[in-house]
Every structure is written in C-alpha cells, then in structure tokens.
Predict the 3D structure of the following.
Amino acid sequence: MILIRKLLFIITIPVIVFFIQELFAIADDNWQLDGSIELSDAEEIELGKSVNEYIRHQFYLRNDPELSKELNDITQRLTAVSDRKTLPFTCDIIQSYSINAFSAPGGHIYITEGLLKFAETEDEIAGIIGHEVAHASLRHVSKLYREFIEIISQREKGTDSVATLLLFNCHLEEFEQEADTTGVLYSHKAGFNPNGLPDFLERHLNLLIRNGVFGFLRFGSYTTISSRINHMREYISSLTIKE
Ligand SMILES: [Zn+2]
C-alpha cells in the first residue's frame, strides 16, 4: 500500500503541475528514456487495477449513470483517434469541489465534480480528457515509473541525488507539454473544438489570479501556465492552417 501511495504521488504530480505548475526545470532535448525499461501493457493494466482500488478507497465516486455515459462517450471518441486504442479507457467522477483531473495507469481517468461544474462546454471537458488520454497513449506513467522507484530507493538508502530529481522534473515538464499538444490533436481529430483545453486553462488561471493563489506560489506558476496556453494556441493555429 505504501508503494501505491508513493505511486499516486507520481500520478497526481502531472495533475498538480497541470494546474499549479510548481516544478520548473529546463527541458533538455538530449535526454532519452530507455524504452526497454518501460512497463509492459499487462504490467501497466495490473498496476492500474491496484491504483484504481486505492482511489476508490480514498475518494467517493459519484454514481450518475447518465453523466458517466456522457463522459465515457467523450472518452471513447478520443480513444478511437489515439495512439493506444487497445487500453480499456474509463472515466470516473470524484465527489470533490476541487477543480482537478488525473489518470492512473491502465487507462483510468478521474474527473472531479468541481471541474465538471467549472467547465462551460463539452469541448472543454473533451480537452481535459484528451490530455489524460494523451498521457496514457504516450506511456508517461510507465516511462516515469522506474525512475520514480529509483528516487524512492535512493531516498530510503539516504543517497538522494539532485541530478535524478532534476531529470525527473524535466520529464514531468516535458510530458505535460507533450500531453497538451497530443491531447489537442486528439480533440481536433475526434471532432471537438481543439481550443477546449486552452480555453479551460485560461479561465482557470483567471480564477486563480482572482483568488490570489499566486500570492502564495512562485510567480513562475503563472508564467508556466500561460506559456502552456500560448504553446497550445500556436499548435492549434498550425493545425487549422494545414487544412
Ligand atoms: Zn498532465
């Protein structure tokens, strides 16, 4: 269970980064993860089952068949155009006022009621789900898993390495950007307005500013989210120019 709890940390970090962006590291284009140490599909699905069980113990899930069907229909449309169609993607609703979304290994996606309330259009929700489908399609959890285990074991041995942590943070940042553009592409291909995700993030950013959240965080949090939004807008204009 401790490992699962630690694993949840890694899974939720991209989510936290997604909205708050506290981790900054300059991405190094030269890094390359060794594909042979990634989890296999079967391993990832197995791990996903345990994480899903853990989440179901930690949170109350909302039982609303109609809403669940709507969300799962959106998820299936996005999965159909994704690069990992074989994963059994599902989308569950977590009873929480917070505005959040995250995914567990094996295609489990979780969205809070707060997020659903805050979203104004189906395109925005598709943008959020598309981002999570992209994380899974690009095997991000699987790629970070071994690195994360390495950090935990270093910490336990008292041999923490700043380089390992920095590399890990680099990957988190890099993966966020990758999930942004890939998710936007999936939304576009599935027939949703690809501006859904940047629109949502922009409104959420304004809410955070109004609530004074950035007074407590580093100024970089604001600039990181803005730069993600700009990056997505640029990518979307290149998509529409191609057509
Ligand atoms: Zn993310």
The beta strands are 90-94, 101-104, 108-112. The mean pLDDT is 81. The pocket of zinc ion is lined by residues 14, 18, 131, 135, 176, 179 (CB under 6 Å).
